[in-house]
Design goal:
29 strands; eight-stranded antiparallel β-sheet; Quino_amine_DH_bsu; globular; Methylamine Dehydrogenase, Chain H
Length: 395
């Protein structure tokens, strides 16, 4: 058996190795000095948000005092989460189309879930996502419901904000957004929610199938009030309170699959002729609209409606398996978009290259190309703990 001898490293070789190692560690050319990090390092967003961005309101049912609105670029596969703002307990949200601001009507309690109540209207800066102003809503009666677009609306080129109140008596608070002060509360007994109409006013849906149209003066007082006679049967085929607005016409789907347009361009709402969303065969299969935010409109005249088959009385909140696209000028369906995952809410972006966002049953956002009907990406805003029921496109 032949043994191998290990050759010892000479003292000179060891010393040379150590010297080279020290040179490599301490040589000024071997390691560039890194710049100091700035803490905190805060980026800003563009003052005008792009048309591909979406405001996603998370009600946060698992911690309802901590609601929020998340700003997403739904056209991007990377870095699409742009930021978020807090909306407190059952907040309602709307972005301005005239100023680089966003607004949220919020409620807080002194001890989180109890204690003294404070209602505020927060003014958020588009670029920094910081609060520029808080306007206290003194009467503490803002409606606290699952997020609802028509609970907070802007009128008269965003000069006035309208906030829906429910105690259960219903009223609307009028806030001057230039002076940042509450002007008035307008009683709307038996009616709910806010649909801007005319130059400086709103209409509201009433329990008997009518509408109430109100115009305001510059002090936020009622200048005129008109009751629009009942134009739908609340027992046989009620309207969804969600609508799509295109060129000042509001498109309200009915529970049984009709479309009720209402002209809101003037001081008094004018219901127009109702038209059918379904063909004879589709009606035999009981296709119906359903979900939370079931309809969205594009400026080119298209409306997108979330639909489900085998509908019954009570299925109006069940969501849908398809999105049907209609031409509002021709009163006909022009496209069907099958959904890969059951949908609950939807919104279409308003640019030329529109995208369709659908909140799916897994509480994620599926983004479809309306032209090809293809699913382009799925975005998470917090997994199963998120509740992105209300989606608002940049306009």
């Amino acid at each position: 058996m032949v043994s191998k001898k290990i050759r010892p490293v000479s003292a000179l070789s060891s010393a040379l190795f150590s010297a080279l190692l020290l040179c490599s560690v301490f040589s000024p050319t071997s390691q560039a000095e890194l710049p100091n990090d700035t803490v905190p390092n805060v980026l800003t967003l563009p003052e005008a948000h792009p048309e591909s961005w979406l405001y996603v309101q998370d009600m946060n049912f698992w911690g309802m005092t901590e609601g929020k609105v998340i700003i997403l670029d739904i056209a991007s596969n990377t870095r699409n989460y742009k930021g978020q703002v807090s909306t407190g307990f059952f907040g309602s949200f709307i972005p301005s189309t005239e100023r680089n601001e966003m607004y949220s009507a919020e409620t807080y309690y002194a001890r989180g879930t109890r204690g003294a109540r404070t209602d505020v209207l927060s003014v958020w800066d588009n670029a920094t996502l910081s609060v520029k102003k808080e306007i206290e809503l003194p009467h503490k009666k803002r409606a606290q419901t699952v997020s609802e677009k028509n609970a907070t609306q802007l009128i008269d080129n965003d000069k006035y904000m309208l906030v829906f109140n429910f105690t259960p008596a219903t009223s609307v608070s009028v806030i001057d957004m230039l002076e940042h002060k509450v002007l008035n509360d307008v009683d709307i007994p038996g009616c709910s929610l806010i649909y801007p109409s005319g130059k400086r006013g709103f209409s509201t849906l009433c329990a008997d199938g009518s509408m109430l149209s109100i115009q305001l003066d510059e002090q936020g007082k009622v200048a005129s009030e008109t009751r629009v006679p009942s134009f739908f049967n609340v027992d046989e085929d009620p309207l969804f309170e969600k609508y799509a607005r295109i060129n000042n016409v509001g498109y309200f789907p009915t529970f049984h699959g009709y479309m009720q347009p209402v002209d809101l361009s003037g001081p008094v709402a004018k219901p127009q002729e109702k038209w059918d969303l379904l063909s004879a065969s589709e009606r035999e299969q009981n296709w119906r609209p359903g979900g939370w935010q079931i309809i969205s409109g594009h400026p080119d005249g298209r409306v997108f409606v979330l639909m489900h088959k085998d509908g019954v009385n009570g299925s109006h909140k069940d969501g849908g398996t398809e999105v049907w696209v209609y031409d509002t000028k021709q009163h006909k369906k022009i496209k069907t978009i099958p959904l890969e995952t059951h949908g609950i809410s939807l919104e279409v972006t308003k640019g030329d290259e529109a995208l369709l966002a659908v909140t799916n049953a897994k509480m994620m956002l599926d983004v479809y190309n309306p032209k090809s009907a293809k699913l382009e990406r799925t975005l998470s805003i917090g997994g199963d703990n998120a509740n992105p029921f209300t989606l608002t496109a940049v306009e």
